[in-house]
Amino acid sequence: MHTGGEPLRIITSGYPDIPGKDILAKRRYAKDHLDHLRRFLMFEPRGHYDMYGAILVEPSLPDADLAVLFIHNEGYSTMCGHAILALGRYAIDYGLVKAVEPITTVNIECPCGLVRAEVEVSNGKTDKVRFSSVPSFMLANDVSLRLPDGTAFKTDIGYGGAFYAILDARQFDIAITPENVGRLTRLAEEICQAVNDSITLAHPDHDDLAFLYGAILTDGRDMYEIPATRNICVFAKNQVDRSPTGSGVSARLAIQHARGLIAPGQVRVFASVIGSSFEGSVEATTSCGPHEAIIASVKGKAHYSGKASFWYEEDDEVGRGFIVG
């Protein structure tokens, strides 16, 4: 499937059982013992540098309809909004959850916690999906840092199931356009390095969640009155999200709310670097440990793109998976 152009390879069979008492334990087991399969499925010749995947595993939470591990070019993320939008449709279309019109709820256990997806169903067909994320919050604002060349910049740090450095690209006089993706990717890498060198992240729920997932460079249009705002998310190992990034939108909403730029119930449109869009809003306010937080609501639609089967021949060393660059 793909959501707003961002791929999602859903692994439906052939993966070994992944033991663990909870989803984070399963994530650690997959990292330690099954990482060759992540490379096999994400890297060339079967995938590419920006491939993304979902491994369905046995849920550990009693309210979960399914559980998922997310995989990409670097490892295993804790939350993925574009994947949730796809898995909501998939769960109903493939019989994991019985369809109920006009809205079917699909509870998905992610490494960051339980995420509720609400799938529109009409005449037996699934359509758009809205998810309510885990508590999202602004960890820090207006942090002053420098790039290796000495360029000063300010960034916020937000959490939406994963931590991001979120900042206005106008500080670097660069627009969020496809033509600038190379420059934006290099810039995001330097921003993440500067943040990691200066800031120690912490999450009140679990240490496994306390890492910087990526950087989100925005067009600076954070006021609610402006109908749409564009951003690019560069995550993992300089992987560029083609969608607006569901967890990133959640983090952006948390920051906008903390700054008084959006109120509960107001809807904003978030566009990606290729122009695909999600709707986002503040569903409710809450807390996460010591942090004032929100429940973000993100809406979009995923589409099916095909099916594939993969196999490995013992003498195919290259076929184990590789990336160039």
TrEMBL record:
Cleaved signal peptide residues: none
UniProt-listed PANTHER family: TRANS-3-HYDROXY-L-PROLINE DEHYDRATASE
Stated name of the protein: Proline racemase
Cross-referenced Pfam families: Pro_racemase (PF05544)
Family affiliation: Belongs to the proline racemase family.
Domain of life: Bacteria
GO molecular function: hydro-lyase activity
Entries under InterPro entries matching the protein: Pro_racemase_fam
Listed Gene3D superfamilies: Diaminopimelate Epimerase, Chain A, domain 1
